[in-house]
Amino acid sequence: MSEKKISIEVSHTATEHRQALLRKEYTASELAEACLEQAEKHLELGVFIRYDKADILKQAKHADKRYQNAKSLGPLDGIPVSIKDNISQQGKELSCASRILKNYIAPYDATVIKKLKQEGAVLFGQSNMDEFAMGSSTENSSFQKTCNPWQKDSVPGGSSGGAAAGVAACITPLALGSDTGGSIRQPASFCGVIGLRPSYGRVSRYGLVAFASSLDQIGPLGRSVADCAVLADAINGHDPLDSTSNPRADSEPINNSIPKLEHKDWEGLKVGVLLPKNANMQAEVSEAIDKAKNFFIAKKAHVIPLESKLEEYLIPIYYILSTAEASSNLGRYDGVRYGHRNNKVKNLKELYIRSRTEGFGKEVRRRILLGTFVLSSGYHDAYYKKAQQAAQLVKNEISDLFKKVSIIIGPTSTHTAFKFGERKDPLTMYQSDLCTIPAALASLPSISVPAGLDKRSLPIGIQFTSPAFSDMQLLKVAAAFQEGNSQFNLDYRSFTR
Fold it and tell me: What is 14-258's CATH number?
């Protein structure tokens, strides 16, 4: 650590840190040191599975040289960004918070990691997560639990719980997570930060360990919408290494600066409000939605109530499709080529059974079994094929809604963060994804923005969703909402004292 002590407010946004670095108020190394001190101060949160202090400081020193020589690479140069532990970094351990991959070293960089290195970002450790991104609370990590910084007896959400908690606790200004059915947005809501799921196909999945390939998408978490736009811009782009990557990512890019909505923009804006009908929504969440509606009405936007006729089918559709794909994707972890292996076996079948039973946690085994069942002979058409057809109906319904409106708002979650161990029944836990699943099934961009605190001082999140590849419009509206609602703004400085 440097002997020179510089007072750095780690609660500042990435954009503010960037301006300070350009003004030479402090160096990237000093910023990295401050973030490392913040990480050590909050070890009890369980944000990281691992981080390498020496490597972090080495990256920061390279950024210092670029700033000294006026050769800064861009808005992320020298800015710490935590990486979820299912994104490949060459030469680094990659475990997906699972025993079956413990001590596995990634042989290559994910495309998003290559892009961040080109931007000069300081890659700041591997954040904790639900094993193989399967969970809504980060209670399914094989290594540790992550606590919600606002109330340590409560979950941070999942599966990107470590990423969200680290940003909320001001350890890093930015984080990369992944979102399958809500794994960026729901923990962002629970931890009171911004979480963006970009349009499916906008960000390369090459190097992301697959859970459900047709749903997985990498995205940013930050303390401001502007910061998320900067990180989203850095990782955006078509990638021939990913067969699901969409060329529209290049032709309709995300800009790292968000234009403000003008008066005429507000008057032409049609905001749909979609609330879950069959879920008991927490009273304070309902109040936050009402305040959001009033904000848009005051701006002269058109606020239109919407209704879904397919709400009751969302959870079954998602969990049939995602578990089927998980069963297929996780078949490679068999103890033969890499990962955990039980050597006290008599034959190949026993090797598979023992290695996978010991290596996978309870929730992952549950989803593999469910997925294998719905894909099995005699059940494929009855479950998997029907779920695919039903998912198309969901897409069609949402497409029809966007003929009436340009943005849909609603709760990110029907409730704020729950306490550890409170949701032991898997079906109750799966209900946590109710509000975030539609955007995932329809491949749409969606963002969670903080909307104040409840009576337990736990954050509330409001979700904004827009049509495919209208990410910039989504970010413009979300940024205007965050900027125009000072009563919703959260004070993260309490975590720095």
Answer: 3.90.1300.10
